[in-house]
Amino acid sequence: MFRKTILTLAALGAATAASAQQAGPTPGPHSGERASIPFITRSEVRTFTATDNGEGVFIQNARRDWYYVSFFARCTELPWATAIGFTTFGGGPSLDRGDTILAGRERCTIADIVHSGPPPARAKKPKKPRAA
After folding, report:
1. All structural domains of the chain with their residue ranges
2. Reduced to 3 states, what is the DSSP secondary structure of residue 88?
3. Do residues 25 and 41 make contact, with C-beta atoms less than 8 angstroms apart?
4. Tell me: the pLDDT tens digits for 4-31?
């Protein structure tokens, strides 16, 4: 009886593991799954970091979740922006694909938003040698 129970539990565990592999990763932080940023209109943005080439921006919300936003075309003023604005479709509370980020005088249309980790660390500039 005891041996039969162990074999049954082992078979059940194998079936559960197989179904979990077929389902794929659970959406969440660092997953790269598509997302929308909730409550963007209530000042829920904690910080943002633009990519150097203006192709995207990392946004952190008040819950400290990171998102990566990519654009249909480069947003050339974004890397030098000190503040950004948002225009959502229909004035909705969430930022989603097709909405707009305002950087300076430029309007950048969002192509995609995914869950992300924090932005990569920027390379430090080498120190200048001191004059003697």
Report:
1. 40-116
2. coil
3. no
4. 433 333 333 344 333 334 433 434 455 6
